[in-house]
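Lab notes, practical 5.
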Amino acid sequence: MKKRKFYIRGESDFIEVKGEPVVIDGFPKYDFFIYRQGMNPDFYQITEGTTGHSIAGNSHKLTAIETAKERLIQHKKQLARVIRKTIKKYGLSPAYKKEIPK
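Output from the prediction step:
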């Protein structure tokens, strides 16, 4: 089985990070993951997988997930539109780009 890769959006490009999938109740069709920030390894960041953009962060893993859930609930109506606009502006995460066999 191929190991999944996770990417965040940097200033000018996507950056691969070590992460793990996270399921947020109420948002089953979306892809989120959690990772520890490189410059601050005691800080957990919840990221939307197709865009690589941060949703929320905290020094406690469960609090980061709960904060992300609260923000997502607050902006639920705009979420799909914001994701589409972000992908159009910055591109799709490399995790979602299909590799072309040689």
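Observations recorded by the TA: The chain is about 30% helix and 25% strand. The longest helix spans residues 76-90.
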